[in-house]
Amino acid sequence: MAKYMPEPFKIKMVEPLKMTTKEERIQKLKDANYNVFALKSDDIYIDLLTDSGTGAMSDTQWAAMITGDESYAGARGYQRIIDAVHDIFEYDFVQPVHQGRAAEQVLFPYYLSKDKVCISNMHFDTTRGHVGLLGAEPVDIVVPEASDTQNFAPFKGNMDVERFEAYIQEVGAERVGLVIMTITNNSAGGQPVSMANMKAVSEITKKYKLPLILDAARYAENAYFIKTREEGYADKSIIEITREMFSYAEAFTMSAKKDAIVNMGGLIGIKNNSEIYEKVKGLTIPYEGFVTYGGLAGRDLEALAVGLYEGLNVDFLKYRIGQVEYLGSLFKESNVPFQYPVGGHAVFIDAKVMLPHIPYYEFPAQALVCELYIEAGIRACDIGSYMLDVDRKTGEQLESEMEFTRLAIPRRVYTQAHFDIVAEALENIMKRASSIRGYEITWQPPVLRHFTAKLKPIIK
């Protein structure tokens, strides 16, 4: 029987949720052109669309916001961010930005240009989008275990080191503009990367004189998995593990809206390269605002400085990942297929297994997203072929290696009863899975289409 991890906090404030009927949800989804990003939040009962910026801040964070210095230049919060990054990550330079994709927009032009290649264990959607906007090609080289969703492997987020080096030799090191390690590996199912793998990738990048950076949105969750799964790290603190992880890269981008538990904020960290930092500052000012606020209010800087430490708390991380494990255990009991073991921030339902009659070009993961909303007012997200866009050269629909419907868990927001409802909804959908239809796109933008595209069910 699944065991729930009790919250290491008490609830101080509540937000009412709206209940809707199934008939209302069918109409609202139709009005949204079957894109759940277009639904109003008031019409969602349990919102598992993302864990980005959707967490509940602590009383300490709220208290820090009251002291926020809203000076345009040189605000106190900026210095607190610098101090925190020096302490936690041991990086020399830091640039706050308003969120993770802003960090990519500011940093990536230093490394990438037309016809360059960007290699990753797996790019997430905005990362892939920014690589493409610069005319470069994103290439994913994740370990084969990531595709085996039903069997346990401790670090399914790892880079396939042998294929990684072989690919460098195939295309030539001069074509590789950047190597990115995504921790945890979101597109693979929120799966962690081992310290040994990060060290091995770092050694290869040094061998070929290639830059290595971290997409570090979920740095604390990855550190917790290393502590609990990798030999030699059980007795190390989360901050010690974090420092070693970051030692293998020369820079990082971070959406602080995840493990730093803020509603808005991001960071760029640079280890010891003042040349890169000057380039970053040069792009921050026109894109994000002056360097000491980077698109953030002073109160946001204060909350972020606190959140960087709160996200490292081992009791919080044990509860945080315990919630996700609880939901995965419920799915195990009812035979709902998912990426096993669960990731740090989400359960990824395997829509390819659950809906085998829907081909990738009819978007099985998005079909399951729609069914979940109709069934119980739960909003989830496609992490599959629908998210991939089309091939930039041929215009053909790309096929994702995995077809996941992601149930992302906001931090410190939902309780055990909510997860029981989610599990019951998926169990009910399983019973009628063979009757679920695929979808086709009726309109799409050229980049990052899944945010705004319009769809309709396929009638056969």
What does this structure look like?
The chain has 460 residues and is α/β, with parallel strands linked by helices. It has two domains: 22-51 and 313-457, Aspartate Aminotransferase, domain 1 (Alpha-Beta Complex), CATH 3.90.1150; 59-310, 3-Layer(aba) Sandwich (Aspartate Aminotransferase, domain 2), CATH 3.40.640.10. Helices cover 38% and strands 13% of the residues. It has helices at residues 22-31, 59-66, 76-88, 100-107, 125-133, 161-171, 195-207, 219-229, 238-247, 274-287, 298-310, 314-333, 351-354, 364-376, 416-431, and strands at 46-47, 93-97, 117-120, 137-140, 176-182, 212-215, 251-255, 266-270, 346-350, 378-379, 381-383, 404-408, 439-443, 454-457. The strands form four sheets. A seven-stranded mixed beta sheet has the order 2-8-7-6-5-3-4, sandwiched between helices. The longest helix is centred in the C-terminal third of the chain and has 20 residues, at 314-333.
Task: Tell me the CATH architecture of the largest domain.
Answer: 3-Layer(aba) Sandwich
Radius of gyration: 21 Å
Number of strands: 14
CATH superfamily annotation of the largest domain: Type I PLP-dependent aspartate aminotransferase-like (Major domain)
Distance between the termini: 41 Å
Described by strand count, sense and barrel closure, the largest sheet is: 7 strands, mixed
Highest-level CATH class of the largest domain: Alpha Beta
